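Hello K.,

You asked for the raw outputs rather than the summary table, so here they are, unedited. I folded two proteins back to back in the same session to keep the settings identical. This is the first:
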Amino acid sequence: MKLLSLLFLIIVLSVETEYAQLTETKGNILRIDINKPEIDLSDTLGSWFDKKEGPLSSTNYITRILNNNDTNYIFGVEGDYHDYLTSWGRTAFYFYNENTKEKIFYFGLAVLFDVIWEPYLSIDNDLLQIENGNWFSFGIRGNCFIDREDSVYEYRSYFGNEPLFTSVIGKVKDHYLLAVKRDTTYPTYDYYIANLSNSPKIQFISQIKLNYNHEDFDLPSRIEQVNDSLYLLKNEISTALYLANLNDSTLTIIKELKNNFYYSWIFQDNTLFYTEFNGEWNFIKEEFDLSSLTFINKEIILDRITGYFRYDNNYFVTLSNDSLTVYNYQLRQIVNQYNLTNIKYKDSFILSSPYIYLHQILTITDVNNENAKPTQFTLYQNYPNPFNPSTTVSYELKEASYVTLKIYDILGKEVTTLVNQYQQPGKYNSQFSISQTNGRQVLNSQLSSGVYFYVLRVRDSSSSDKPESSEFQKMKKMILLR
């Protein structure tokens, strides 16, 4: 055991000696009040950082911010990773009470995991707010409840013999439809209407059968109520939006309402709001007609949307070209437009009305060892990982080569191409962002949480049409956390 530990230490030290490089970005969270015309630069919360020293990476970034009873709760992710030891790493989720200054960890993974594909695989980190606390859903990895006194209750689907709920599908009247994993070795699920008002205790009211044909991996992922018995239904890997009937014992699909529908959406007052990409991003409104059971009166509320965007039940916010625009789409008017020219920030934000939160950059350190030249082709672990909304993929070329760098989903479908060109020797950084587009191809804004793969292929020819000349190929995985 001592010999193995010594060998591990030698490997780490030798790698760090070969790649003497430090890059670090630090900042805080700038809070912007939507109802005020100017940004208060003194209104900041918490802190975050991205750090990479040789092959060692560490990160601390914010995923969401809540305000309960005038207390700010900052929810974030910490992680430590090693480029060469892909099974070594730590991912920890925490919340920080700004009043008590106490940081509490509520979920963690010791390593980046390898599991078979199955429903509810993603680390969703979905948030469900109820009267006495907050539920955080992590798919098959488990769930966590945090009460109003900051007590943490964890529920792990893979620990113990009792079946535990895996995912909250949606609200059903005053209760919720839950997916429950009942077999720890095979993706087998039951569905229940449950009462969560006494959380962390869960009261299962009735079991629901899926009364329609479905595959093992095409199970309910989201449900929204239309009236007493009708619901909008999305299955996990389906690209269709369905109309379904739900009673005390069965969930039945009535008809398909939309095909090729894989966008995020909001349904309120019998109106569907969603983004759609047809060469450019548009924000769409459609009414649901109860007499014909179809959507009618399709209307483009916002067209030619650029940059990073998010929306909630009232606001559509865009970040593009150093401009942050807040649009109240219910009232059809711009609320505020902020100039960010003099502010350094990450190209993303958190929307939690009435506030917008920016990851403001305060310091950037980038120290390179100029004498260190690549001696081999190398693909590094993306950083940060898990990530949202963007991550950086780095690689090194020992000689001039034709390079392709592509992203794939867990089913092997190509998501996007980051690099496709001839490059000189050296180290390169390529950014992958969930707000990217590429011509008419729908890209990353609608990607779900989960595992993705990136593949680097290096050819010793300047021609991209000679696959037989390929001399290096490497694949690594990344985790998107939404």
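The second followed immediately with the same parameters:
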Amino acid sequence: MTTAGTGSGSRVLVVASSRHGATHEIGAHIGQTLRARGCDVTVADAARIEALDGYDAIVLGSAVYAGHWLPDAKAVAERIADLHPFPAVWLFSSGPVGDPPKPDEEPVDVAAIVEATNPQGHRLFAGRIDKSELGFAERAIMIAVRAREGDYRDWDDIAGWAQGIADALHAARSDRGSA
């Protein structure tokens, strides 16, 4: 078990791209968890992020629609690939809904994003669907895949994943300190 305040002191950028806010909420929860573990965290919207340099780690996530990451998140991934020195990277996708969550496969374009960013890991989290926020095309997809409205995000699972990131950063910092 890990405790609050035992984090790495690492500078972490959490960037998320979201169409209706649910993925931004996941990014904020990851940021809050990392802060509680002692990380210096900046949480940002992928559409508005400017500088990516100066961070020890970047956590990048995107909502997934029709099997694809949103363009703003893909653009940030391309920028990460050009960073020198290269930071530690973790990726997350948000989108499956239902019980059990569907679709349960990796997003179509995540393999290319993984190759470009060489992440420590990629995690697929269930999402939230609120019909009142959806446009016509999104509602049609919802009907076609028989998705049910609801919030399927598992906040404990998300926090546990973020705690694993804090643990890895802390271990890396300890390794650098003892080298």
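Residues 155-178 form the longest helix (24 residues).

Happy to rerun anything if the numbers look odd on your end.

Regards,
P.
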